Amino acid sequence: MARIKNVELPNNKQAFIGLTHIYGIGQATAKKICKAAKVDQTKKIGELTNEEIAALRSEIDKHTVEGDLRREVQMNIKNKMEINCYQGVRHKKGLPVRGQRTNRNAHTRKGRGKVVANKKK
């Protein structure tokens, strides 16, 4: 297994699909990385040579991925919460941030409804 940015890439996947296991790299970015590193994107991760893996590593280092990106996203959320902007308030309350309805959906964000005792009257 190839290890890039402390992520084990699966040997049986194609190179551009395997790179998507790294946080912050989607399929489009993975294809660009493979092209820039001159690696065949349809080649399996297990078949890559050490030189090709090194080329992929150096190309990925040019992007913000994994821990740095996670930290940046968390800092952005924390900043919004501190300045009390609309999205920050929604984050604090645990409600959907991007304008979704809440009266009949949003159970993944809000959680299931709380049972109220003695409601029958």
Features:
2 strands, 30s ribosomal protein s13, domain 2, mainly alpha, 121 residues
Describe the fold and architecture.
There is one protein chain. This protein is mainly alpha-helical and 121 residues long. The chain has two domains: 2-60, Helicase, Ruva Protein, domain 3 (Orthogonal Bundle); 66-110, 30s ribosomal protein s13, domain 2, CATH 4.10.910.10. Helix content is 45%, strand content 5%. It contains six helices and two strands, in the order ββαααααα. The protein has helices at 15-19, 27-36, 50-60, 66-82, 86-93, 107-110, and strands at 2-4, 7-9. The chain has a two-stranded antiparallel ribbon. A hairpin with a 2-residue loop joins β1 (2-4) and β2. The radius of gyration is 21 Å and the shape is elongated. The N and C termini lie far apart (63 Å).
- Give the termini separation: 63 Å
Mean pLDDT across the residues is: 91
Strand order of the largest sheet: 1-2
CATH class of the largest domain: Mainly Alpha
Strand content: under 5%
Structural class: mainly alpha
**Tally of distinct domains:** 2
Tally of helical segments? 6
List the secondary-structure elements in sequence, H or E: EEHHHHHH
**Extended strand count:** 2
- Stated plainly, the CATH topology of the largest domain is called Helicase, Ruva Protein, domain 3
- Which geometry do the CA atoms define? elongated
CATH architecture of the largest domain: Orthogonal Bundle
Low-confidence segments, given as residue ranges, are none
Largest sheet: 2 strands, antiparallel
Helicity range: 40-55%
